[in-house]
Amino acid sequence: MGHLNQRNIIIGVCGGIAAYKSAELVRLLQKQGACIRVVMTEGAQAFITPLTLQALSGNPVHTELLDAEAERGMGHIELARWADAIVIAPATADVLAKLANGDADNLLTTLVLATAAPVFVAPAMNQQMWAQAATQENCDTLRRRNIFFIGPEAGEQACGDIGTGRMSEPSAIVENLNAHFPSRALDGLRVVITAGPTREAIDPVRFIGNHSSGKMGFALARAAREAGATVTLIAGPVHLATPEGVERIDVESARQMLSACEQSCEHADIFVACAAVADYRPIAIADHKLKKQGEAGLTIELTQNPDIAATISRDFPELYTVGFAAETQNVLEHAREKRQRKQLDLIIANDVSNDAVFGQDHNSVTIIGPELQLHLDKASKLQVARSCIEAIATDFHRSD
Ligand code: CTP
């Protein structure tokens, strides 16, 4: 069974021609073992009958917010609490606008406000309606609020237009949901992850550092934990809360990070080097605060830091190792070369050429292995981390 087995999923169907695909979506999710309840807007019922979706889902279809009979069965708040996810497919321009506005004028929009579960939308509309600034601004608002978008796809439309606005296929929607729910794929495994920058002291008050926020490494630690691993997170100086259930070791310099890694990796199965380690450190750390040197300037001599990823993969040949490659040009080529040079099982490449990664909440990466090249579209760092953990788990078990 997949990750959706026993998950409670509300499928919200809105009024669009793509509503006919909802029947297939219900069927596919049923096959994955999910428990389905369908909520239809009034418009949806003009395209597909509640009876069809009731028969496929095995549960009565919910259509009314103010329906005493339905409220006696499973009221809207109960339904919102029951859900592990709400998937709105098709999501019309109208429902996107309502959600962006925080409306609660029908059962579906009310459920979205009343649930703590993740909400997914698969938009479907005419390409011009999708391109419209009003729709795009609504989508931006919803993305900022962590509503997950699936599609829309480009192609021929029911109205005869060609462009972006087709609802994603039900199989693609199921794939997205599968990726979202942790699979427990790392159950029983021990994972060590480095995160954040390192600080290389110059004197008691100054250091060489970098802009790494640690968000990606922390997201990976959370995702690995969700997937069932025992996680040790070795973090440089960052202001982030420790993910629940994760053991954290705080370090400052690259050498401290290496020594913490060496100890933690003794009993680990997987090592993920996500930290932005300073490649160089001052040869000597001044005992006292350095005084201004005047116009002559100041020269600080640097020496190379150990490469943590390369050292760990050399010293623990049995360990499954994953690195990151932050590149500004020829991203994939440099990443491939780095993976080989550091003898890593996988490398996760990201393009940092336009400031779009450091400190940001979103990321887009390519996972590269000897026979693997998997691109993950831009998404929240947590979503990307979950997909990376899935890919790592799959590759780890394959090479078991
Ligand atoms: N890394 C490490 N120790 C270092 C430098 C890097 O463990 N001293 C790890 C990083 O955590 C990352 C990978 O190596 O997983 C690649 O880091 P990156 O900064 O992209 O590469 P560098 O080795 O520094 O190479 P270059 O500066 O030439 O791009």
Task: Give a quick account of the main beta sheet: strands, pairing sense, barrel closure.
Answer: 8 strands, mixed
Count the beta strands: 19
Principal-axis shape: elongated
CATH superfamily of the largest domain: CoaB-like
* First-residue to last-residue Cα separation: 21 Å
Give Rg in angstroms. Answer: 25 Å
Strand order of the largest sheet: 12-11-8-13-16-17-18-19
Highest CATH level, the class of the largest domain: Alpha Beta
Task: Return the structural class.
Answer: alpha/beta
How much helix is in the residues?
Answer: 25-40%
What is the total number of structural domains? 2
Question: What is the CATH architecture annotation of the largest domain?
Answer: 3-Layer(aba) Sandwich
Low-pLDDT segments, ≥5 res: none
The average pLDDT score comes to 93
Percent strand: 15-25%
CATH structural fold name of the largest domain: Rossmann fold
Count of individual helical segments: 14
| Ligands and ions found | cytidine-5'-triphosphate
Task: Outline the fold blueprint.
Blueprint (H helix, E strand, L loop, with lengths): L7 E6 L6 H12 L3 E6 L9 H8 L10 H7 L1 H7 L2 E7 L1 H9 L5 H8 L4 E5 L3 H5 L1 H12 L3 E2 L3 E4 L5 E5 L3 H11 L9 E6 L4 E4 L2 E3 L6 H12 L3 E6 L11 E4 L3 H12 L4 E4 L6 E3 L19 E3 L3 H8 L4 E8 L3 H11 L4 E6 L10 E8 L2 E9 H18 L2
Parallel strand pairs: 1-2, 1-3, 3-4, 4-5, 8-11, 8-13, 11-12, 13-16, 16-17
Antiparallel strand pairs: 6-7, 9-10, 14-15, 17-18, 18-19
The protein binds cytidine-5'-triphosphate (CTP).
